[in-house]
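Figure 2 data, in text form.
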Amino acid sequence: MKSLPTLKHSKRYIAFSVKGAESEGRGEIKKAVFKTIMALLGECEASNANVHLISYTGGQGILVCNPEYVDKCIVALACMKKVNKVEVFVDVIGVFGMLEDAKEGARYG
């Protein structure tokens, strides 16, 4: 059964790049991102933010979240300092409304 269009949750896609841990895999980056989001937002806010790591390859990734929590997710990405004891710097490329735009932005960002 399809949901009515008004009942669907909209999404925002955050394209980001990680400097310093390009050799780290998707699993390590995912753990670090969610650990930072949980530390900053807490369990209830993180659950409401509905954050998922869509893709991560070659030091660039796409994170999807609830539009109301875009700013908080960007702050959480900026607070990420280490991945597997390796110092990292996270740069947000942009926020997009469609996945295709986020992929293109991550490619050229």
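Caption note: The first helix runs from residue 26 to 49.
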